[in-house]
Specification:
Blueprint lengths: L4 E7 L3 E8 L4 E8 L4 H19 L5 E8 L2 E3 L4 E4 L12 H9 L2 E6 H12 L8 E6 L3 E7 L2 E2 L31 H4 L1 H12 L14 H6 L1 H25 L3 E6 L5 H14 L2 H4 L3 E4 L6 H13 L2
Parallel strand pairs: 1-4, 4-7, 8-11, 11-12
Antiparallel strand pairs: 1-2, 2-3, 5-6, 8-9, 9-10
Helix pairs in contact: 3-10, 5-7, 7-8
This protein binds zinc ion.
The site of zinc ion has 5 residues, from loops.
Amino acid sequence: MEKRTAVCLDIGGTFIKYGLLTEDGELSNFKKQKTNKNGTDGLIGQVIEIVKELIIQSDENQITGIGISSAGQVNHKKGNILFATDNLPGWTGIDIKSIIENHFKLRCCIDNDVNCAALGEMYFGNAKGLEDFVCITIGTGIGGAIVKDSKLIHGYVGSAGEVGHMIIKAGGRRCNCGNRGCYEQYASASALKRDIIEKLGMSYLTPDNGFKLLITDYQTDQKLRNIMNGYIKYVSMGIINLLHLFNPAAVIIGGFVSEYDFLLKKISENVYQKAMPEFTRDLMIFPTLLDNKAALFGVSTYIFKEIQ
Ligand SMILES: [Zn+2]
């Protein structure tokens, strides 16, 4: 018997990743291309071309539906984009579910990329078997997803989980959301990079602008250690807020922090020290497994669970 297959796309501010996924989690035809920044028509056109390409590459009869994971705030039920930053120009307000369904006469499911990543981890990754957990992804900004009783908390209009915009410092650094003192202004990878460049210069960056954070540097370089300890304190503060709000069994961290074992360890130690003890008694803190493919895996589960 033919396997049910979903066409899946993960639309980010820099790349669109895409591929075909079967119900049992086999990913094929995986590719990525630069996100089209030429406004609404440019991006919609690109999405339609990618879906076409994947349908051609598959046996058309197997396609159960089209799953779209997108950066920004997404109304999963209605299938529209509530808000996207300038990283996805012209994307705010687009009713992408109807556009895709009308064009391809196939069902389309859409959700925010971190929600999709959390589902990916829950069905195929490190969060298998967990019913209550919080997932945060630390990159240019900070995204979040909250899973309660094996279901995502979407909130009233679908925007729940904007972890990066928890305000953790009154009158603090200005954020692109319009407020000051947001979590991502202190705990994102960009925030740390800015601190390091401002205080220590560029020598801590690799030629391609990545980090050169080494455990030996952390241990021997007092100035770097001070900056890192400040960063660790801020990342932990946000996690502690989430623990106290949702009392999850686990916190799963994707993106920048998950690439550095020593950083994850320091953050965990800080959280265990400072959160109220009942909240950390059996708490697990660990990195994501599927990382940049988690959202593709996650959005495919919508297709197979919502479409029979
Ligand atoms: Zn903000």
